[in-house]
Specification:
mainly alpha
Length: 76
């Protein structure tokens, strides 16, 4: 199943701007941990403060859209 999705994604034409936005998003997520649930070390007194997988996915999609807008903005 995953192989089929990868093959379809490889066939789809990708704009250079989307590729740049994707690389920017990857850089931000790796360097900042954006979109990951916070790891609680020890007792923090906060129960259930971690994000659900759906919230993590939504945060990453929002970040990608922001990166796309940033890449498409003209240089001043």
């Amino acid at each position: 199943m995953a192989e089929e999705i990868e093959k379809e994604a490889a066939k789809a034409p990708k704009s250079e701007g989307d590729q740049v936005a994707l690389e920017l998003m990857k850089f931000i997520t790796v360097t900042t941990g954006y979109g990951k649930s916070a790891a609680n070390a020890g007792f923090t007194g906060k129960a259930g403060s971690s994000r659900t997988p759906e919230e993590q996915a939504e945060a990453l999609l929002d970040l990608f859209q922001r990166c796309r807008r940033a890449v498409k903005q003209p240089m001043e």
